[in-house]
Amino acid sequence: MLLGILFALTAGALVGMQNVFNTKVNEQTGNWTTTTLVLGLGFAASFGIGLIVEGKGMFTSLPGMQTWFWFSGLIGVGVVTSMVQGVKILGPTYAVAIVMTSELGFALLFDSLGWLGLQKMPFTLHQLIGVLIIVGGIFVFKLGGGRESENSPVRNSEALNEG
Prior knowledge:
By secondary structure, the protein is mainly alpha-helical. It is built from 6 helices and no strands. Helix 3 (72-90) crosses helix 6.
């Protein structure tokens, strides 16, 4: 379990860092160039590492897999595109907080209903309360104040919408 927690913490740190990098690339290029670079470099890296670590064996389980699982990479296009735009408009902390809450809510939904090939897990009131507390935390975080700088992404976006 500790190893799983360590991997999850590492993933969170890497996703947070990637979101900032992706947004900076997007400022220089554009949404589709950013998405192409992120997913293209990710493909090249994972393909190369996969061949080194697993060799040709990395392809042996493909014939037994349901075909619709093969298209999960297309979901990655939506993830990168949406996240870059969310960070650009809301700023990284607020956007990531909303994404994490959405992930948790949908994971709870998918688990509880047994969707997407998952084993159906019982839905509990404690799980619902946990998600609602996190959503409440986002509202406290966003509405609780703090001074926005004149150059914040949210401030600049609001100025564009007013003009």
